[in-house]
Amino acid sequence: MLGERGDLVFQSRCEGPRARVPRTEFGASTFIRGTLRVEQTQPHYTVVHWVEPRALGSRALRACMMQVDFRWVGATDVQFRFFREDGLRKKPEEAALPPWFSVDLICLKGEQTPSRWQISDRVSLIDPDTKTRPTSAGSPVPKEQAPYPSTVAPLWLQSGKWYRILFEVKGDDVSVQLNDGQSLRGRCKGADRAKVPSLLLEAPPGKGVEFDNLKLWSLR
Fold it and tell me: Strand locations in 63-158, DSSP E?
């Protein structure tokens, strides 16, 4: 554990009068039997904006904890992506996407469920510290702009089984744990900035992942 759970900042409900389907691009999100099912419908990663920045208001989550239940139903790749607050405020001409890091669950070719997961810090975007772009393709990245290397480990999941995944982010440290005891820990450059979680999914037609009980807390 990286810290103590603080205030509940955001909660997504999948049933009841306050249930709201999150904004989804290049795919479809629907409520089915009290869960949120996400499927890919176009030849592009499906993007689910779980938490809109305005939902966090003025809160500065320099450390956070997020929990979500999920069930794998045929997806090939899922990224739990955390945007950094400073990137969300950049002008379009400054960056195509805000800086971010992610926790990726990955199926290798021919696999039905993920066999590895990784914590990735992205170098292709504007660096949050220097406010400049990395050097052009093929050129070395300056030391002060280089991210921590990705942390990769084996993963075992059963198709159709519900799992609860818990993310903790504090300082440069990122910790991820499943309720069956599997865990992963790594470091991400600039991960101590505010967190705005979203989801990216890749899946064959009619396949995807189901989610439930998304909660986001501050971390003391």
Answer: 63-73, 77-84, 100-106, 116-121, 151-154
